[in-house]
Design goal:
By secondary structure, this protein is of the alpha/beta class. The protein has two domains: 222 residues, Rossmann fold, CATH 3.40.50; 244 residues, no CATH class. Helix content is 62%, strand content 8%. The protein is built from 16 helices and nine strands. The chain has a nine-stranded mixed sheet with strand order 4-3-5-2-6-1-7-8-9, sandwiched between helices. Strand 3 and strand 4 form a beta hairpin.
């Protein structure tokens, strides 16, 4: 070894962990590997500040955002948003409440805390059209003072196996996790797969059964027993106690304590005893991952230089063929599913007709029974308002459970019809993986098998307040005169018609709302799969450009490029040995 080489090796070994990650990021950019560079740079930024990430993960609707709001004592995260976008939100310590958003262009912008929903909710930022990479919220809180950051990850239920795309991309950043489960069901297959993936590199897992107030003691006991058995089997290690809590009760300070104190004590212990260790592990994990990925890219570049250009072009051609077949198959499948959607629309119409026929009889019967017990002492116009408000109440009581039932029925149908998309998408992904091109690494290995309705319901009860009171001076006078004579038959007759009208209007709107949710959910699913194919196509374009550059380079340039790759390969290997010294 020459003196220069020894000095360079010593200098590399003296680098701090964040400096190693910054250097790996620079090398990744030289090869156009943006995803490697971005991940390495992000980890370097936060470990240089001694921050570690505790991610809150779990199925959509588990109450993760409410739990985090309760932990920090501020309602800074939007809740009851259906659904969240693929934007992780990081809560970190600050002297005062503040927030900022990071865009995919790597630029930051300060935003008001109450504007966070504009960037992380599906309603305000559909399909992440604002190109948000992440959001940070600064909160003055003792729990966060020494480096712990809480992370609200998108709920599961996207097309990606085990998590949404953003949760999948965020896994390398997770240092510890709060896993939020429920009583019904305790753990989905996607949740279990995500926890198993995280546990490969993360030891500190805190398990929470949220919404304990909504389940009986027997239901909670069964859920805890099932979750413990399954988790210990899959993780191959004992799991700690699962804390039973109600985050909403805690946030509103209006319910029992449950295991809240134990949860907070566990997190405080994590900060006190494991904070520095978690930062060190994050550094080692980040260096190891970035180095391994970068070595794979260098290896592919070297192989492209050494193999005949014809072979490189054959590989690219195979990738392009797979992409073109995927796009063609999506078009054909889309046409078939459009036909299926039309069939489902007719199914919803038929179910509405059956509901309406049955419910009109029940609603009219209930109206008659309630009218017999209603006070007749009020004047005609007041009596009309009372009767019509009663009609609204009766119809709303009939429609609410039906809406819930129709949504569940639509969810089951959507799961079945979406399977053809999922199976086809997975076949495309498997064929892309067979090309062996490392740039495809950011794409998911497989699409999630179970789908759910991902579009928000826009149904609201059509009250028709203008009908609930006399609509003209003539009717007002008539109600006053006839009411004074004790003649209320006209009002009752109008109320019966009002019940039928409310049922007609609102049942039609329920049927339309459910139908539209299925259409929109299918469109979102199809869009995500098409985006995967489009990303693969862009990767193919970059690979083809490199292959053509090799072809035009000539023998001397190829030898020089190989020598450079060898030097970079050696540097990355040396940088990766920093893991041992941290």
């Amino acid at each position: 070894m020459t003196g220069t080489s020894r000095n360079r090796k010593a200098a590399l070994q003296d680098l701090s962990g964040d400096a190693v990650l910054y250097r790996l990021s620079e090398l990744a950019l030289e090869f156009g590997a943006q995803h490697i560079a971005s991940t390495a740079r992000s980890i370097a930024e936060r470990i240089s500040e001694g921050r570690f990430y505790v991610a809150c993960v779990g199925q959509f609707k588990r109450g993760k955002s409410t739990l985090l709001n309760a932990l920090i004592g501020h309602s800074v995260l939007p809740t009851a948003v259906v659904p969240v976008t693929t934007v992780p939100t990081i809560i970190r310590h600050g002297e005062h409440l503040a927030a900022r958003v990071r865009f995919q262009s790597a630029t930051w912008a300060d935003i008001p805390v109450d504007a966070v929903e504009e960037y992380v909710s599906e309603g305000k930022n559909p399909e992440n059209v604002k190109s948000v990479a992440g959001v940070e919220i600064f909160v003055p809180n003792p729990l966060l003072e020494t480096g712990m950051c809480l992370v609200d990850t998108p709920g599961l239920g996207s097309v990606f196996a085990g998590n949404t795309a953003a949760t999948h991309a965020f896994i390398p950043h997770i240092d510890a996790a709060i896993v939020v489960i429920g009583a019904d069901p305790p753990l989905s297959g996607d949740e279990l797969q995500l926890v198993e993936t995280i546990s490969q590199d993360v030891h500190d897992l805190v398990f929470v059964l949220n919404k304990a107030d909504r389940a009986s003691a027997a239901e909670r006991s069964a859920a805890l027993g099932f979750a413990s058995r399954v988790l210990e089997t899959r993780l191959k290690r004992p799991i700690p106690a699962i804390f039973e809590i109600s985050a909403l009760d805690r946030l509103e300070q209006g319910g029992p304590e449950w295991d809240w104190g134990q949860l907070v004590h566990t997190l405080e212990d994590l900060v006190r005893h494991s904070g520095r260790s978690l930062v060190r592990k994050a550094t080692c994990r980040g260096i190891r991952r970035a180095a391994d990925q970068l070595l794979a890219v260098i290896s592919e570049e070297r192989n492209a230089l050494r193999r005949p250009v014809e072979e490189s072009e054959q590989r690219i051609a195979k990738l392009r063929e797979t992409i073109e077949e995927g796009e063609g198959g999506m078009r054909d499948l889309g046409a078939l599913l459009t036909s299926e959607q039309q069939r489902l629309s007719q199914v919803f119409i038929g179910r509405r007709e059956v509901f309406l026929k049955q419910t009109q009889v029940l609603a009219q019967k209930e109206l008659a029974e309630r009218l017999r017990s209603m006070s007749h002492g009020r004047n005609g116009p007041a009596y009309r308002r009372d009767v019509n408000h009663l009609a609204q109440k009766i119809v709303r009581a009939q429609l609410t459970p039906w809406l819930e039932g129709e949504a569940k029925y639509a969810e089951d149908l959507f799961c079945k019809t979406s399977q053809r998309f999922i199976e086809y998408g997975n076949s495309v992904l498997h064929r892309l993986a067979e090309t062996g091109i490392p740039d495809l690494e950011p794409l998911p290995e497989e699409l999630g098998r179970k789908q759910s309705l991902r579009a928000q319901s826009h149904f609201y009860f059509h009250v028709l307040e203008n009908v609930a009171a006399p609509a003209s001076p003539f009717l007002l006078v008539s109600d006053l005169v006839l009411g004074g004579l004790g003649l209320r038959g006209g009002i009752v007759h109008d109320a019966r018609d009002f019940v039928d009208h409310l049922l007609e209007v609102n049942s039609s709107r329920v049927q339309y709302d459910v139908d539209e949710r299925v259409r929109e959910s299918r469109r979102k699913l199809e869009t995500e799969i098409r985006r995967l194919v489009r990303e693969a196509s862009e990767i193919a374009d970059r690979a083809l450009c490199r292959a053509r550059a090799v072809q035009a380079a000539g023998a001397p340039a190829v030898e020089a490029a190989l020598a450079r790759l060898h030097a970079l390969d050696c540097e990355v290997v040396r940088l990766s040995t920093q893991v041992v010294h941290l």
